[in-house]
Amino acid sequence: MAALDNLRAQWAGLGTELLIRATRGICDGSLLNADTGRADTSARLEDWAGVLSLYTGENESASVRATA
Question: What domain of life is recorded for the organism (predicted)?
């Protein structure tokens, strides 16, 4: 009986370790995706700022500001 209890404790410890590793992997992936998204958004805003500057002569009274 003691061997069975020992085996259960080992499996519980292994299950906990796998759950922790999976959660860390998900969090790391989420942070990486967020950083990539911010970089993409910033690059697109810079592109659009360049395009909008071509049209400032037509709408000088309109003020457009883009930030991320």
Answer: Bacteria
